[in-house]
Each structure stands twice: as structure tokens, then as C-alpha cells.
Amino acid sequence: MRLLRSYLREALPGLSAARPRMRGIAAPEYGTFVFMGVQSKRIYNVDVYYSDVVDALINWDGGAGASATSPSSFTAPEDLILSDIAVVTGGTDTKKFQLLRNNQPTGDFIRHIPHLTTNPNRPQLRLGFARGTEVRAIQKA
């Protein structure tokens, strides 16, 4: 490596010998949205896949696990409260989710960092979704 740097310095004197910086390489990740039924108190753990692409929708588990080909929405089977979001790690290009209720922004942005799976003190959420509501989330920078 030293020999290569030395050669490059001699061959290309105008270029810096500094190491190149990593650029925004998308790092797809997984997470879980935890909903609780208002009446039934049932817990719905819905896995998600996010591609780490700005302004792309996240993909929700449609029954076979969350992946790039999973549905881009989750339909609330009853009145639900979104109580927790746990993501494996934050994205490289995206830093938060914008939640949508029937394709209308709720005004809520969920940042990745406080919701990491390794954080035992994730903030508690209390966002409501009526039965039949299509829940979506957009990845934001």
C-alpha cells in the first residue's frame, strides 16, 4: 500500500495522498413496528425492510418476512396504537421515517438513532391508526 501511495504521489503530484472518503452507499436494514390493538390489547409485531433510499417507502412484512419485494403498506386490522419502533441500525443515506396515514403525512418523523434495537430506553410512542387505515412510512434524509 505504501508503495502504491508513493507511486501515485510521483505520478500524480497534484492529487492528495489522503484516503478517499466513503460516499453514501445505501445500507438496507430491517426493523420492527410494534402496534397494540386498542380494544383487544393484542400486540402486532410487524417487521419492516428499508432500502436506505431517500424518499422510498419502507416495505412491510406481508406474511413471508419483510424484504425488498414486500408490500409498501400495512393495513390496520383494528384500531391500533403504534407503541414502539426498533431498527437494527441507522441508515447511511436516510436518518428518519415520515409516517403516513392513508397516504397523508401524520406530521411525525421517527429518527433511527433513538429507536435502535440496542437501546433499552427507546422512546415510547402513542400514535393512533383507525381500523382499515393504510400505514406507510417514507425514508427521509
Summarize the structure.
The chain has 141 residues and is mainly beta. The chain is built from one helix and nine strands.
Q: What does it look like?
A:
The protein has 141 residues and is mainly beta. The chain has one domain. It has one helix at residues 2-11, and strands at 29-37, 43-50, 59-60, 74-75, 80-87, 96-101, 104-111, 127-129, 134-140. The chain has a five-stranded antiparallel beta sheet with strand order 3-2-1-5-8, with no helix packed on it. Strands 4-9-6-7 form a four-stranded antiparallel beta sheet, with no helix packed on it. β2 and β3 (59-60) form a beta hairpin.
Outline the secondary-structure elements.
Blueprint: H1 2-11, E1 29-37, E2 43-50, E3 59-60, E4 74-75, E5 80-87, E6 96-101, E7 104-111, E8 127-129, E9 134-140
Antiparallel strand pairs: 1-2, 1-5, 2-3, 4-9, 5-8, 6-7, 6-9
What would the keywords be for this entry?
single chain, 141 residues, mainly beta, 5-stranded antiparallel sheet, 4-stranded antiparallel sheet, 7% helix, globular
Mean pLDDT: 86
Query: What is the alpha-carbon Rg in Å?
Result: 20 Å
What is the count of β-strands?
Answer: 9
Derived structural class: mainly beta
Number of helices: 1
* Strands ordered across the widest β-sheet: 3-2-1-5-8
Distance between the termini: 35 Å
Measured by DSSP, the beta-strand proportion falls in 35-45%
Order of helices and strands: HEEEEEEEEE
Overall body shape: globular
Approximately how much helix is present in the residues? under 10%
Multimeric organization: single chain
Number of spatially distinct domains:
1
Spans of at least 5 consecutive residues whose pLDDT stays below 50 are 15-23
- Major sheet size, sense and barrel closure: 5 strands, antiparallel
